[in-house]
Amino acid sequence: MKIDLNCDLGESFGSYLKGNDEEILKKITSANIACGFHAGDPHIMLKTVQMALRNSVKIGAHPGYPDLQGFGRRHMEIPPKEIYSLVLYQIGSLHAIVKAQGGELSHVKPHGALYNRAAKELETARAIAKAVHDFDSSLTLFGLANSCLLAAGEEIGIPTASEVFADRTYQRDGSLTPRSQEGAVILDEQQAIDQVIRMVKEHKVASTDGIDIEIIPDTICLHGDNERALMFAEKITAALNDL
After folding, report:
1. Number of folded domains in the chain?
2. Which one of 68, 99, 112, 155 has the minimum C-beta count within 10 Å?
3. Which CDD domains would you find in this protein's record (predicted)?
4. Does the model's pTM come out above 0.85?
């Protein structure tokens, strides 16, 4: 059994440091690198790409809303035609750095509020999928399992990966619990491990109110800004290797 373990990285900005990217990159197989809108800057992007290449980790663009202050987690009323442009712009910026370092871009995963919006709004999802398709139709689009984003990618004919989360809880409709609610982020390592193993073995995850949701895990996400991200990466990798 093989499954991808991805992490959102490169989310520092200038002198503001976030996460432990160097160590986490030793434990994962795919990195979603911020492209300067919700986090990151050109130097951080370059540094993170170089570290990912040294660790033979697949590199993906992680485009988000232009919201540095809110870390891309606040909703913004941006129409789909502008979402297309801002996603295309961010993919291109990371691609330039990856290409200059002799690497290849592997995938695209939207960030934060944009990701959650695309999970539920088909027109937003279509704008993102079209940006990926028009840039390079061989890139894989990461989207929340059972979401509009995956449907839009399949509709336009690009590869998709169904993403599940090790460190987030779920609502009964399959969406992630909003971060504004208590219990949205999992901090207990055994809870995270148990959730991952059940998703991989049984293709199920329990919602916060105890309802089982059918879920297909192509790639498992850890958040680099989670205070326990490195420990989770180590423990989850060990648990998956034991299956």
Report:
1. 1
2. 99
3. LamB_YcsF_like (cd10787)
4. yes
φ, ψ at 51 (rounded to 5°): -65, -40
**Tens digits of residue pLDDT in 167-203:** 899 999 999 999 999 999 998 889 999 999 999 999 9
The answer to whether 81 and 115 are in contact (CB under 8 A) is no
Helix residue spans in 101-171 (DSSP H) = 112-120, 122-135, 148-156
Range of the domain at 224: 4-241
| Residues in contact with 38: Cβ distance below 8 Å, sequence separation at least 6, in sequence order | 11, 64, 65, 66, 67, 68, 70, 71, 72, 73, 111, 112
Length of the chain: 243
Q: Which of 90-125 are b and which e, b meaning 16 or more Cβ less than 10 Å from the residue's Cβ?
A: bbebbbebbeeeebebbbbbbbbbbbbbbbebbebb
Tell me the three state secondary structure of residue 50.
helix
Question: What is the distance between the alpha carbons of residues 180 and 183, in angstroms, rounded to a whole number?
Answer: 9
Task: For residue 99, give Cα distances in angstroms to 49, 102, 199, 214.
Answer: 10, 5, 35, 38
Whole-number Cα distances in Å, 60 to 49, 114, 121: 10, 16, 23
